[in-house]
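2 proteins. here.
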Amino acid sequence: MHVLPTRINTRSEAYRQNREAMEALVAELNGKLEESRFQGNEKRIARARANDQLLASERVRLLLDKDSPFLELLPLAGLGIRGGFGPGGTVIAGIGLVRGRLTMVSASIGTHKGGSVDYASAFKNVRINEITLENGLPCVQLVESGGANLPDQYQMFNLAGSHFREMTRRSKAGLTTVSVVFGNATAGGAYVPGMSDHAILVEDKAKVFLAGPPLLKMATNEIATEEELGGAAMHSRVSGVSDYLARDEREGIRLARDIIGTLKASEPHFEPNGPIDAPQHDPDELLGIVQADIKKPFDAREVIARVVDGSRFLEFKPEYGNTLVCGWAEIHGYPVGILANNGVLFSESANKATQFIQLVNRNDTPLVYLQNITGFMVGKEYEQGGMIKHGAHMINAVSNSEVPTVTINMAASYGAGNYAMNGRSYQPRFLFSYPNSRVSVMGSEQIAGVMEIIQRAKAEREGVPFDEQQFAMIKAMITKENDEKSSAWYGTGQLWDEGVIDPRQTRNVLAMCLAVFNQQAIRGARSYGVFRM
């Protein structure tokens, strides 16, 4: 493979200014991530300490192998949603190593709102379930939750129950779920251990019941204690809901690790063999390369050169359709196909992508999409040249590709370009965004411009003067709203991605995703829908 050269001048003023702007965005990201790590107020944390209880983050660390990487997922879910429990909700979730096995880990933050599930937490659980099933992962759930947050029930009740359904579907597929209950698991939350393959309850701490003493008294006039209704000892010795009675939290976590250790070993599609070469160009330079102002172009090859092993890249059709870069590389030893935008999509670049996606599927190789796209080229010449059908070829290939994919939104992701480059609605296994990125039908200026053309034409048809002052106010409102709702912060709060990442972490994030993909057999598509000729 060819080693990619670099043309970046790290001493230039343009590089320096852009790097400063990107550093500010990364600092903003780190501030929001710090906010998402909130474990509850001091009073609740002190109460947990007095009760010999660990915090959710501490439980996760004890569960994971020493020095295990941890790919945290959806840490900012719910960001900006009014009435929610804050970014990340009341759930910590991610993928790490447990007894050497890549495992999905989900932990209730019992010291924050009692671990109750708000809107964001509920749909974070839904997405985590999707990721767990499609990637064939075992799952450990560290449970301490008061169930649904009642004010949010109207928005989530009808859909959030899929959490329990997906646990049983994973079980059917042979994917183990282990639940460790550290405190309350009440009402619907009682079904989490109830539907797990293995349930571990901590003695004198776990309380698992459909109705607590007050609700029971109201419903049936029966009087019972929490221990009689749902205590760990009762469920271990009487009801059989519990499979293991742990003396304390640490033993519960140790039992979960032991259970994961008994699982049948996975049959990886591929495992790296031998030393891994770092990129020849410094990944730290990505902050000066990726543009904070997404209107400014940058060469996707400069990003690839700082992500792939040894900066080696075998480019496919390098002289053709040059607004899309396609090729083969390795990341931490894992083979991968890469598609990266270097401008608007023309017919040539769309057809090039179509062929490349078919080749990668034939070779059963995962795909990485690096988005920086404003859409397909428009205009009379391009419409008459078949832009629609050529774009359809690409979208057909993206839609019917069966190898696992991960998408990184590096800057703009607009219109049909979002679809062609494997946006959220095209179901990538993972999707991450840079803090400068935007997702929208089109840019704010373009939306405002289109609206102005329409309104001016309307005024002319009706024979009335165009109100410049009024439209200036409307234009400002349109621009402001689109700027806010196309931002990386809004998108990640709405769960449109798995998280916003520092561009310098791209290589490690992709490596973790590829490791997950390769834990099971990979077989690409051998057929597609009809290609319009």
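next one coming up
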Amino acid sequence: MATPTTSGKTSVVKQSVKMGVFTLIMMNIVAVVSLRGLPAEAEYGISSAFYYLLAALVFLIPVSLVAAELAAMFPYQQGGMFRWVGEAFGEKAGFLGIWLQWIESTIWYPTVLTFGAVSLAFIGMDHVFDSHLAANKIYTIVVVLAIYWLATFISLKGMGWVGKVSKIGGLVGTIAPVVILIVCGAIYLIGGGQSQMNWHGDFIPNFSNFNNIVLAVSIFLFYAGMEMSGVHVRDIQNPTKNYPKAVIIGALATVLIFILGTYALGIIIPAKDINLVQSLLVGFDNYFKVFHIRWASPIIAIALAFGVLAGVLTWVAGPSKGVFAVGKAGFLPPFFQKANKNGVQKNILYIQGAAVTFLAFIMVVMPSVESFYQILSQLTCVLYLIVYLLMFAAAIYLRYSMKNAKRPYRLGKKGNGVMWLIGGVGFIGSLVAFVFSFFPPGQIPMGSPATWFIVLIGGTILFVVLPFIIQHYRKPSWKESDTDFVPFHWDKSPEAQAQLAAAAKAFEEQQAAENTGDSQPSAKG
């Protein structure tokens, strides 16, 4: 992966140590699995497994495999989603892709931090008081903003230590709690406990009920982010065999965690009593009450909150780095290209923080914390699905526009049939989820339907139009003189082709050195 240097030339990170299958599996699981969405699916009882499996087949696996091919095609060019979409449909479409990826993550912060605020509310031992505190809008706003801005200021000091925090937070705040939840459910049933879930219901849901489909569509966002591991395809031992293996195993493990975790929650809480924000903590508390270990409830609450905080620390500066790199190539005004002494994109983080603050205050006009949580989750889902639609379309298009390009990892040995199948299924699945995301769920009191449609439709139009407005007023002076951004392949100018050739040569030299064992890992690796 190309990285900036002070000289402005393309540098390739040296990395001789290759990742094994287990490492990539763990990266995928920790990156994708989030427990905050379990209550939403627990409402469906036994049929929730059907939604998880369907979303995995039509979304999770296609995203992972298509992203792997795209990442392998452009191992030394910066931009990620901007590169993938831009190579197919031009720089404006590419900018739209990375812009929406950044915006959706910005909108995601209030929702995940709302879950974190609820977790912190349940640190106390008074269940009634904790529930009232978790539902209090003022408390939620204060905690959301305090945690977010703390994470932002920490990010401004540099992100060197955040990786370790995210790993620990993923294990302590995600993997460990869901294992405990599943074990509790199993012990409860084996011990003769009465299940609140109807095991005799229909596994295949009633598709004629719009309300069921609408709320279940949010499951697509549960699986979002698996494409991030595709950038590591060149750093994997024998990627042709090991990457698909890691993706399939990681996907199966993810689906299994979601299904068993959802069932464990449905066993202890009646569907009619499920609250999208609070029920995960209530579920743990109910199990611990049965097992006479209620002292463990605050520990789980702290662990879940720590998992949320670690995730936010990881992502606060993450997506914005892509926008920052693209901005320095001339796609954003100089204001957005400012970095502090640590090289962190300070102005972008401030703008991001202002947006998160504004969204948090929208909670005041919503009828409940739960409705605020759901509407922002849906807006996040809508915007991210647009990104995936662009990605799937770009992957198919590039099979024809760049048919002779090297594809170290390729879907199908010959022809484009496998790409059409997998990419097409992913595109259609994303499109269906996109359409249904605009329908308000009947299970949640959303207040006025007008508020739902204004926020979703108005927000989608606003965030899609904004990047085109920015590009309309784009100026040549926006481009930094020392940027090392590699041009697109369709740019046939002599200067662009020379830069592409130089970057490709540097990458090939690194690969050759690694294969002969001559390169050494970088000090930062």
